[in-house]
Amino acid sequence: MIRRIHLYVIASVLACGANGNNGASGTNGNGTNAKQETSDVSDELRQLSAHPDLEVVIRTGTQHWKAGEITLKVHGDGAATVLQRQASGDTSFEATLTKDEVDRVGRELGEHRFTAQRTSKLPREPGDTPVRLALQHGGKAGFEVQIWEADRHDDADLDAILVAGRRLVHRVTKGVLGAP
């Protein structure tokens, strides 16, 4: 019986590999996860305040490492939140951005190809942390990519997106987190 189960598992793994599926739903085979929508999403991003149900999400870090996992969410209506998850617990912050701030954020992220397809290469260096970029409509992801922070060293646009995110985190948390 055990031998039959092992053969079944091996056959299943081989079948997934032959079909280009690495067994993880939504992954693209190199350790990243990407859901891409048309360029309409990028246009909406550039006019973020005109789309109150649109939400930009930038998540960085790991819950049990340094400052923890930081999730920034900016809605088209100006509502902005930061959630800091650490081993000791969660801390949340809220702010309301002006229409001009929201549009400036949207334009900056659009100029730096927020919705570009990005991939990460494996293996990763120790200490590298995950990054999630997403655009959501009413809580449903229209665009999503999960990559690694070290990818910013080879992608100037990703670096600019993460710097913009840290500035917004600094603004929303009133200087507790992020960098000006």
If you had to describe this structure to a student in words, what would you say it looks like?
Strand 6 and strand 7 form a beta hairpin. Helix 3 runs antiparallel to helix 4. This protein has 180 residues and is an alpha+beta fold. The longest helix has 17 residues. 30% of the residues lie in helices and 28% in strands. Strands 1-7-6-2-3-4-5 form a 7-stranded antiparallel beta sheet, covered by helices on one side. It contains 4 helices and 7 strands.
Please specify the SSE layout and strand pairing.
Blueprint: H1 2-18, E1 33-35, H2 40-46, E2 54-60, E3 69-75, E4 79-86, E5 89-96, H3 99-111, E6 130-137, E7 140-148, H4 156-172
Antiparallel strand pairs: 1-7, 2-3, 2-6, 3-4, 4-5, 6-7
Helix pairs in contact: 2-3, 3-4
Largest sheet data: 7 strands, antiparallel
Mean residue pLDDT:
79
**Secondary structural class:** alpha+beta
Q: What series of H and E elements makes up the topology?
A: HEHEEEEHEEH
Number of helical regions: 4
Radius of gyration from the CA trace? 19 Å
* Number of beta strands: 7
Query: Strand sequence of the main sheet, in spatial order?
Result: 1-7-6-2-3-4-5
Q: What spatial form do the alpha-carbon principal axes imply?
A: globular
Portion in beta strands: 25-35%
Quaternary structure annotation: single chain
Distance between the termini: 61 Å
Any low-confidence stretches, pLDDT <50, length ≥5?
1-38
**Helical proportion?**
25-40%
